[in-house]
Amino acid sequence: MKRDANFTSRTLANALRMLAIDAVEQARSGHPGAPMGMADVAEVLWRLHLKHNPADPHWPDRDRFVLSNGHASMLHYGLLHLTGYDLPLDELKRFRQLHSRAPGHPEVGITPGVETTTGPLGQGLANAVGMALAEQLLAREFNRDGHTIIDHRTWVYVGDGCLMEGISHEACSLAGTLGLSKLVAIYDDNGISIDGEVAHWFGDDTPARFEAYGWRVIRGVDGHDRSAIDAALQMAREDVGRPTLLCCKTVIGWGSPHKAGGHDVHGAPLGADEVAATRQALHWPWPAFDIPDDVRVAWDAREVGALRQANWQRAFQDYARAFPELAAEFERRVLRRTLPPGWQQGSAAALQKVIDQAASIASRKASQNAIAALLPLVPELIGGSADLTGSNLTDAPTSVPVRRALWGNHVNWGVREFGMSAAMNGLILHGGLQPYGGTFLVFSDYSRNAVRMSALMKLPVIYVFTHDSIALGEDGPTHQPVEHVASLRLIPGNSVWRPCDAVETFVAWQAAIERRGGPSDPPRRLCAGRGRATPTDLAGHRLRSGVGDAGAHRTGGGRHPGAGRVHAQLQRLRSPVGRLPRGRAAARCAGARDRSRRHPFLARLHRLRRRRHWHRPLRRLRTGSAARAGLRPDGRGRAATGARPGPTAIPLKGVRHAVRAAVGCRWNPGRNRTLGPSGGLQPGLLRLWRALALDGSALRRAARRARRARAPAA
Ligand SMILES: Cc1ncc(C[n+]2csc(CCOP(=O)(O)OP(=O)(O)O)c2C)c(N)n1
Ligand SMILES: [Mg+2]
Fold it and tell me: What is the DSSP letter of 277?
């Protein structure tokens, strides 16, 4: 490789390449290919276009840089190290080691300058959409004529993997619709992923796809030609009211004489011989981790960064003189991230009202009332729903829908649970906003990895999961959450609260908002049912338990982060008022108890539900008795097909119908459309489930009968 006109910048890019090569070599694991392929684009972006100050990674008006293809982490660490962030060379030498500030994939809160944790491909892109949305909303809220204090871009690197992931569609479709013009995605179009040449499994016309979303697409940029990259980035900075996708043709592992362009270089060290050959090819005579002084000087962004931030600081001071109240609000929300001054009093008064009203309402309605009361107190709240606003009840009279080029505080995320959740992570990571969003509990699975990422990043996102009931009769088993709460609780650092009445719901909201103080706070989920509360004595249940731990809705609240505080708050409330308004869940529990006296089946069901994880016994039934009885996964009680029910197929539909039929219990009076001929209630199944309520031998007899009745004719 000859020294060419691009010598200087090529050398600077080679510094990134060599750092990645050497760190991966030292760690004996990692991904050198993408950093080597993207180094030229990164050099131009970071040296000429990115607005940042390495000395202050939290400067509010910095550009956000997200590496959605997180496996290229060494590229990011090289950039942070060379531009002057607090990431010394020693940390790079400990790349991928325990407690290193250069972990295998970028992690927010570990490495200064890393904006979000990436690694699950595609989610960084959705985070970036959230960040760009936050920028746009805050700009509309705070900027005034002649005073632009929020004006930054979100740059996101994506690889083939990110664009293959479905979440890229969810997030980018919404970004296009909302016209997030400060969002620039830079596509590392190298035609390679782990299995080889992507053409065999990824034949999309990506530029056309993004154009269809309403993005501006800059096609065919040579990702190794500095002037082409610069021109494209320049163009990307021009505001056209749409997000921009920059398609950069690159060669994975660029610079490696024998491995460039192939998938071997994606995720394995080059090996000593190839490292030596690459050093030679790149004209990089220096030993591992040795960066010459002139290269360091050329990379150092501290001076220009400090200057930029100082300019912004001056502009902000002018702004503060002209709009003192707005500036104070900006400082509170964005810089200090504290609650508004009137919070304590305001929320306490609102809570007192809820207690006085003693309303018997569905918990999601109680949640909506809480939102309505708290929204005016906490202007940073930004709500939304994945196209279930009217069901999740996540809006309030003061909610304003977010629309293209308009401010709002309620996002219609569309039917995009995963995109919504990952974008909410981006909103909160940006700062200045406290997102909450809803969907049905049963669809939390769609959001799941983003929920996990909230927990991993300790982001206090509030997820409102409603319709927390297996008694969603008319929608059928696809809409009945069974294992969801338990599985959400399996996510480390994730708090799951199941408030059972209006007071608990309000206190849960209150506590959720109070825990919004910073990245050390875990995310919260509120699970709200949709039943009605009826006057029932709840005090006994409550005094034993924390929020959401009342009656039939067992949570083990005390073991969940923050639940103790909520519990204490409820305890304080309860002692003076004695009995509080009653909960739907507890009411159902109590009702079940009454009915259970009449029928042994329900007595058993009730006993199961009273256990801590009441669906665990049901699972046991499924994998044990029900499986032995040859139940099909759809719960229709057909004869054994040889296949045992899979782990995700719990025949609750069967339970529900059997319960209804057996005891005439109508959990959704007037809505039992599925209880017709198509309802799937099989006589054999009914016998089986009746038998379940009795004893093991009866079960076996019933199972035998069911098998015999349905055995195919010989
Ligand atoms: C959701 C998710 N699935 C799978 C992986 C594992 N993985 C890491 S990189 C990669 C290939 C990505 O291909 P591309 O983005 O083209 O990266 P390149 O090979 O070009 O560096 C895969 C499958 C992951 N990190 N995240
Ligand atoms: Mg690729």
Answer: H
319-367 pLDDT, tens digit per residue, is: 999 999 999 999 999 999 999 999 999 999 999 999 999 888 988 999 9
Q: Is 146 helix (H, G, I), strand (E, B) or coil?
A: coil
CA of 165, closest atom in ligand 1: 1
Compute, in angstroms, the gap from residue 159 CA to the centroid of ligand 2.
5
Please report, to the nearest 10 degrees, the dihedral formed by the alpha carbons of residues 263, 117, 169, 157 taken in order: -60
Whole-model pTM: value is 0.79
Q: Is the pLDDT of residue 500 over 60?
A: yes
Digit-coded pLDDT (tens) for 535-544: 222 222 222 2
Sign of CA dihedral 703, 709, 713, 714: positive
Question: Which among 511, 506, 416 has a CA at the least distance from the CA of 460?
Answer: 511
Among residues 250, 106, 109, 270, the alpha carbon closest in space to that of 187 is found at 250
> Among 31, 41, 105, 121, which residue has the most ligand 1 atoms within 8 Å of its CB, making it the best to mutate?
121
Pocket mutation for ligand 1, best pick of 29, 38, 194 (most atoms within 8 Å of C-beta): 194
- Closest atom of ligand 1 relative to the 161 alpha carbon: 15
Q: How many whole angstroms separate alpha carbon 367 and alpha carbon 347?
A: 14
- 75/81 Cα distance (integer angstroms): 10
pLDDT at 632: 33
For the chain, how far is it from start to end, CA to CA, in angstroms? 76
| Active-site annotation, residues | 417
What is d(CA 522, CA 528) in angstroms, rounded to the nearest whole number? 19
Report how far ligand 1's centroid is from the alpha carbon of 33 (Å).
Answer: 12
Task: Give tens-digit pLDDT for 238-283.
Answer: 999 999 999 999 999 999 999 999 999 999 999 999 999 999 999 9
